[in-house]
Structures are given as C-alpha cells and as structure tokens.
Amino acid sequence: MIRFNTKYKIFFIINFFLFLIILSTKCYADNLSDNDLVVFGPDNAKIKIKIFSSLTCPHCADFHTKIIPDIKKEYVEKGKVQLIFIDFPLDQAAFNASKLLHCLDKKKQMQYLDIIYETQIKWTSGSNMEDINDNLKNIVKDLGISSSNFDSCLIDEAISDRILNGRIHANKKYSVNSTPTVVINEKKLEGSISFKNIKNKIEKLI
To answer: Which of 70, 78, 91, 168 lies most in the core, judged by the most C-beta atoms within 10 Å?
Structure first.
C-alpha cells in the first residue's frame, strides 16, 4: 500500500492544476509521432486499442498482467490488434514512473511496463517519495538509465508536459476519469474490462 507524506500530495495536486490551467487552452494532437507513443503490435492492424492507466493503480496491474497477455496471444500476435499504452497518472509516484517510461529506449518500454506492474506492490511500498524514487532507480538501472540520467528524466519539462497534456486530452475526449480505461477504435469500452467483454467488442469489428 502506498503512503505519501502530506507535502508530496500537496505538491502533486498544486503542480497538476497549474499545468491544467496552462495547458487547457492548448490543442493536443491526435497524430502524435511514433516516438511519443508506447505501442505493441502492427501499425496496419484494423483494431487499435488505447489503454489509459496509472502505474500505481492495482486494477491497472491486474489488467496488464492478467488480461493483456490474452489480448496479445489472441489478437496482437495475429496482426489484428495494436495496443497503445497511454499515461494517466493519478499520483506523484505514477507520474515519476511514467516519465521514466519515456526516457527509456523504445525497445525496452514494454519490458519496463511488465516489470512495473509485476512488482508494483514492492516498488510503491516506500514511506515517502524519496524511498519510492530509489525503488524506481533500482528498476531502471538495469534497463539503461544511470543515476544522473534518472535525475534528469524526472525534471524533463518536455516529457512532463506531454504526460499531463495527454491526461487532460484523455479526460476531455474520452471522459477518462479512472483507470484502467479502454478505448477500442476511438470508442470507450463500456461495462467490465474483462477479456470476455473486450473480445466481444473486437470480434464485432473484425
């Protein structure tokens, strides 16, 4: 269970709403470059599934570790579906973890997501943000991010802006207000996010 000091809660809330005010008048491009997206599967797939998640969300961890593998096996590996993972951080720890995702080499991003979700209980167990950041630092050092690069990543304004801008866009366009939220071919999935429900939607589009 994550425990945050009050000062870190206040820090994230204040910073988020400052970005909300600053960015609310900006237009977020739907056609982001490939370098801005974390994708798995062929670009020419008929079905595109967007997954909005927070890296500290237990339900997102369950979805990623239990349902994503079935979608990959049944549809992605057969070229029918492309998965698009989009950040929707709900707290400062998730925000920092998302920044690191975008500082990684593209080829290591899915590996990072797998590790983050599989070990979520462990790395979020710090009593404050300093402890949690140390846990994250230990995860990414084996993926090519040094201690100095780690610190630079967390203060990278371009990455921070992109994540928060995307969060605002997701809320405005898809009414995303909880995680995980699944959007299939630009339509928000209603009902449960079970594999059965997602499969039913996919089969209707194939």
So the answer is: 91
- pLDDT tens-place string over residues 115-168: 999 999 999 999 999 999 999 999 999 999 999 999 999 999 999 999 999 999
- Cβ atoms within 10 A of the Cβ of 179, count? 23
pTM: 0.83
The whole-angstrom separation of Cα 181 and Cα 179 is 5
Distance CA 163, CA 142 (A): 24
Beta partners for residue 37, in sequence order: none
Domain for residue 172, yes or no? Answer: yes
- What are the respective helix, strand and coil percentages of the chain, to the nearest 5? 55, 10, 30
* Buried b / exposed e along 129-140 (16+ C-beta atoms within 10 A): beebbebbbebb
Domain assignment of residue 149, yes or no: yes
Query: Which CATH number is 98's domain given?
Result: 3.40.30.10
Total domains, the chain: 1
Top-confidence residue, 73 or 6:
73
How far apart are the C-alpha atoms of 190 and 182, rounded to whole Å? Answer: 9
Give strand pairing partners of 196. Answer: none
Percent over 90 (pLDDT), the chain: 81
